[in-house]
Amino acid sequence: MYPFSFTKATSTREALDAGLRGGRYIAGGTTLVDLMRETVERPETLVDISALPLRQVSATKSGGLRIGALVRMAEAAAHRAVRTAYPVISQALELSASAQLRNMATIGGNIMQRTRCTYFRDVTAACNKREPGSGCAALHGYNRGHAILGTSDQCVATHPSDLAVALAALEATVHLLGPDGERTVPFAGFLLQPGSTPNREQAIRPGELITAVEIPAHPRPLRSGYLKVRDRQSYEFALTSAAVALHIRGGVIRGAKVAAGGVGTVPWKLPAVERHLIGERPSDRLWAEAAEHAADGARPLRHNGFKVELLKRTVERQLSTVGGTK
Ligand code: SF4
Question: Which domains does the chain have, with CATH numbers?
Fold first, then answer.
């Protein structure tokens, strides 16, 4: 570790002032402290925001749900309103990390977490995300766990968050507070694909603070769930995952929200799969046909071609589970 200063914000104003002076926000610290130990990140000032009043889960006027940025992952997963209305969120959270980490890590920190690409975390390896212009060791290295969608010739790292996949499927928005006031960003535009600037990962401005994520109201009844496929059954990141929410009324699918994880440089929404489902009656054949579109546009690397078929099967399985034909 290296020397750094630490300050605890007692108000949002205090936090924003410190953030504008270059301070780095920290809450649960479950990602940032690891990265600092490995000297992948070297912030000079940490601003502890854990005392700020951002720890509520509440219904919105329009019938959606707002989850404060400092709600712990375990709290959100267990919250009655989340479990009842959006099981896909509870399941994504419960399948993440370990119980200890879920008790510390926050919702805001979860969506800000950085990639698990091993080259990114190895300061001796070339990595455009860590050091722009240095190259990408994963492109011609061992890339079994890397992305097949949304990649560029600069970076092929996956986004690691399960929660983010559920939020992408449900078309959530991110609430931000900065020196110019509040603003909201659709989740689809919050996490950025690498393109030619893989070091820029979120559409967040200097000094801005995430205050909440909001899930919009969806037509009821809404069935939803999350499936995660990984090399071992716990404390592991996804090889592939699928977040599915279906609105079925009168035996017909009226609404479908589907996103995939473990395969994209950002959580990967699957509009072609969604379109294939709308207006149809649930059946095993429908799930299989829709899932054929899950890997549209995929560009596998040397070691991760298996993800194309695995992704289709993951999506098919989860459509079938949520859609009720299994
Ligand atoms: Fe770095 Fe991205 Fe390449 Fe990994 S895939 S080494 S994070 S540039």
Answer: 1-51 (3.30.43.10), 57-112+161-215 (3.30.465.10), 223-323 (3.30.390.50)
